[in-house]
């Protein structure tokens, strides 16, 4: 049994070792940096959303003032949709770096408005952003390996091993106490900035504690592996560098090779339509509609909205109801592709979730982004909210367009508003 | 000497397929000083380490105070103070801090005056006590480790070349210390190259060659073991 005296002795002892202190300071600095940069990015996103929101109402009011028909009102009024970062997003930016978290949309065909933003996303390295989740999932195993791999072997190499084990009341408590003190110190310098960051961002305590528990579980995994491998190899007389090499190879496998190879393999195996094809198909459908007989558009439109069948007669060669009808047909044409596209994303994500059982770093990252609402599920959820909102715009405008209502600015006060 | 405090019975040790210790049989009684003499690579350090459980017997038994090293090594270790062949302590701690650390590992609390008394006994100069061990010479480290062994207040001392690195005056003082300890009932098993020193303090001397005891010398009528006799055994080629 490990006693408190073992613990306090090793704490004092290790705190006297300059390299341990320097090491912990470096880790603390990295943790502070990761939290700080996460907060900075989160606040930048929040500020972007806020300033867009401010303009959103003003721009729309200005555009609407000049309109004399509901059709042009719909055409000229944009609506900001957005996905604000959760309070814990600073710790795990996850998919917010890859998937859009804001779209300005209007009542035109939707797919193009959703996917055109895909193009201007920055290429991110496979390692992703240096946030807390990256620090814990990818770098922390290295710290643990550095700190714990030579607990035994370094003493053997320094010639102190025999004296230590012969003197210690129980050699296992000695090694356990040292490993525990180092692990707890590591845990503290890693988690302190997280809790400070969570307090600044007013994240819920329970979620922050869960985040800390994920960190702890990941640390325990690597701690156990490092100590076991270190012990077995040291007992076979292997040197510290060899122990470190073996552990680094394991790290490389679990933290780099498995994620990268599985990502490539999943992308190869899960069939997904090309986002570009989707855009093209929609653009063509919408452009071609101008030259098609009206009846083609109406037939396709009425298959989804039979209730407007009595209102399709045209009084001129251009009417807004017809214009928006073929915009909707553009979405209908691409619906299958779009569903397949999203299904493929979800399927890839499910597959990655299975692979994560073989890669604790991947699992850690997934759990953290899930907790921070920055995972694929959250991004797809936002996309769905955009679709629902767009749908509500159609339900708002269609009666006004098909019933040929007189334009009244006051009616626009009832325009649906996007709620994140 | 009635009680057998340290006993080897048909003790064999293999290291990397080689017979390093080959059928050793001896006992050491309470209050006895036993010295094992032998050339480099004879197996002296290995024999000591076997009694500490740092090396396992391949056959036969090694026991301390009736406890076999295979069965109850933690109890044995609590009763044994060990001085390693090359003393390596923590360079970033002072001599006193090193002693305090190792004592607390053993679960022993000694007050500062006792530690200082032990350091005085081994004549480590006072100005070094609070210096980091990385500034110590080999002999100063040796003295620190001897002080640590004394402070363990263990009934059994296993000492691997305790006088190596000590200056002549310190060797003299050490030999007196050993005699005093033995007189007060400590059992001392030491391994050495120092024929003269061994003859001064040992009640019995075993000559070890290639893992076998090839000669045994004993005090007669309370007189020191005859150094000529022991030396002759070496030069006659019994020991290479
Ligand atoms: N870990 C080991 N693996 C293999 N052989 C070893 C090991 N340790 C010692 N030996 C061998 O065992 C033999 C005895 O070594 P030991 O250190 O016991 O000798 P010694 O009598 O103490 O010598 P010295 O006077 O030089 O200290 C030597 O031949 C040595 O090569
Ligand atoms: Mg030796």
Please describe what this structure looks like.
Chain A is mainly alpha-helical and 420 residues long. Chain A has 2 domains: 4-13 and 132-268; 35-131 and 270-414, no CATH class. Helices cover 70% and strands 2% of the residues of chain A. Chain A contains 15 helices and 2 strands. A two-stranded antiparallel sheet of chain A has the order 1-2. In chain A, α2 runs parallel beside α8 (171-200), α5 (132-148) packs parallel to α9 (205-235) and α8 (171-200) runs antiparallel to α9 (205-235). The model of chain A is unreliable at 118-126 (pLDDT under 50). With 240 residues, chain B is α/β, with parallel strands linked by helices. Chain B has a domain at 4-88 and 154-235: Rossmann fold (3-Layer(aba) Sandwich). Helix content of chain B is 36%, strand content 28%. Chain B contains 8 helices and 10 strands. Chain B has helices at 44-52, 73-79, 95-105, 112-121, 138-151, 168-183, 195-201, 227-238, and strands spanning 4-15, 18-29, 33-38, 59-64, 67-68, 80-83, 156-160, 187-192, 204-209, 212-218. Chain B has a 6-stranded mixed beta sheet, with helices on both faces. Chains A and B meet through α1 and α7 of A and α2 and α3 of B. The structure holds adenosine-5'-triphosphate (ATP) and magnesium ion (MG). Magnesium ion binds at residues 44-45, 85, 160 of chain B.
